[in-house]
Write a structure and sequence with these properties.
Layout: H1 3-55, H2 60-71, E1 76-82, E2 88-93, H3 103-109, E3 116-122, E4 125-134, H4 137-187, H5 200-234, H6 245-257, E5 265-272, H7 275-282, H8 284-299, E6 304-309, E7 314-320, H9 325-339, E8 351-357, H10 364-379, E9 386-388, H11 401-413, E10 417-426, E11 431-442, E12 445-448, H12 449-458, H13 462-479, E13 485-488, H14 491-495, H15 497-508, H16 512-515, E14 518-523, H17 524-529, H18 531-543, E15 547-553, E16 570-573, H19 575-578, H20 584-599, E17 603-606, H21 613-621, E18 625-627
Parallel strand pairs: 8-9, 11-13, 13-14, 14-15, 15-16, 16-17, 17-18
Antiparallel strand pairs: 1-2, 1-4, 3-4, 5-7, 5-8, 6-7, 10-11, 10-18, 11-12
Helix pairs in contact: 1-4, 4-5, 5-20, 7-8, 8-9, 13-15
Length: about 625
Amino acid sequence: MSLIKQLWIAIIVIVLLAFGSSFFISAYQTKNYLAEQLQVKNIDNATGMALTLSQMEKDLTTIELMLSAQFDTGYYRRIALKDVAGNTVTEFSLTAQPVNAPGWFIRLLNFEIKPGIAQVQDGWQRFGSIELESQTDYSLVALWQITKDLALGFLIIAMGCGIAGSILLNRVRRPLNQVVYHAEALGNRQFITSDEPATFELKRLVVAMNRLTSRVRLMLEQERKQLDQLQRQYELDPVTSAFNRAYCASWLESYFNNSERNEIKSVFLLRVTNLQGINLQLGRSETDDWLRLLVNTVQHCHGTRLVSRLNGSDFFVVADQVTTTSLMCEQLLGQLNTECLLDSNLTTAPVLLVGLSLDAMSSRQQTLSQLDAMLVEVESAPPLQSKTLQQPQPYATLADGTAWLKAIKQAIDADRIMPKLYPVQRRDGSLLHQEAMLRLNIDDNWLSAGQILGWARRYQFTSQLDSAMLTRALSQLSADDSLQLALNISDQTLTTVAVHYQLLSLLQAVPRTVCQRLSLEFDERLVIKHQLLFISFSSALKALGVSVGLQKCGYAINDIQDLEKLGIDYLKIDAAIVLRYQTNEAAKVLAGLIKLAHTLSLLVIAEGVVSAEDIKGLHQLGFDGLTGPGIA
């Protein structure tokens, strides 16, 4: 029960006790006063009537006429004349009449008045006694009217007290709500500060919470700076801030170790020709600036995923295959020839570019060797500036993009979609959830996400696949109460608000207990580009009970502003970093990532675990969960 409700209950109880006790005390005091006055009246009237009778002739008829005349005035309920022996000589009494008051009130506050008794004399001798009881109905009606007036007055006063209490509670509620909001924000790993209220007790609480928030924020900022220093020291090229050669090798290794690739990638080898001559021409400082411009141009080219510097003049580029490798190569080379010219009189930048699709390769060594061979071929045939390796088409019958799109639509409409599950294991060996990877049946063949998503992305159809996968996942979760699933969400889904409403409608149609066993995961690089959209979508998902996580996390985590405001529950660290955990440099970076995540109370999961031997070492680093081909 909320504090406001408790305060209201306390106010109501106090008002009821105060006014209830006052009401009954006033009612009983009024009753006692009226009863006392009636008793005095009985005695006075009996005495006066006895004195009158004592002075009269003791003619019974005359006495009866007198008593009858008195009784007929209506002020008496009973008049009785008794002789010396106590026998009734004559008596006048009034039958009970209905009273204009409720029965419960009459039973509760009915008058019990003793009759007035006086002696009647006949000279020096006693003649008898007279007993007189006044009519109490009038007093009872008057008491009922007084009681109603009291109740009405008390009700008006109680309403006034309620209004005053409401005003006072609203004044208390504002700072109290502020404190509650602050506490909820801390619980949701959002580090805000609140204005100090005037209420002394709440002020002390808010001051303490603000102090705690400042300390946690300072701690978080220190962890960020330390992680950034480790990244720059061990994993990034000091001149261009591109990734170094070790990261490139690790990324390729993790790519070929992963049988569930979301999409086929294109890779490029970019060489700066005559770097030594450029250095002599421009000077070291300006050459470094030009290299940074070169890397920045490549990084901002549409589709680029990462840039790594292999040596002084060679750069390794990975791109999402949103177009063919040859078109991506032309686009990248066009931007370099536009933005990275050394002389306005020249038409091309001093770079060579070769590329291939990774579905044509089977290992890291083969990929780098093929790129080197292609680069030698380009260097030996000027003015050739680029070359790409024609990518194979594993399904020749669907080589046409329109045919692929039609086949994907037909598979979704026919519900030929199935998630393949891969476990994510906690430290204690229990199951955190299972990653649901896309499988689509086309021409009686179950194709993986890597074989489908390139075509779906090219034709802006990935959100339909996400919707179909979510529908299938919710159906499986509803059928199996022990199942916990995690789904990957595509770029198009996050960047399209209309799709947000569609997915939220699907989630709202199932019980909350089903949503609580579902996790939705987003790429780290995607969240960096669309942080506000992600925060909005994540808040709506969390309100329904869905867990939210980031996958393929690594060195870009520091680029996310206000990480604590994302509302996420866990991080999945990119396999390209995890695979090198045994090296001192990578171990320090991973430890920094884990420490930063644990500061925000986030779970940290290692992706791409290859062998059972790695499990112990990764647990020692502090990972909360593991996934990959080495996890059964």
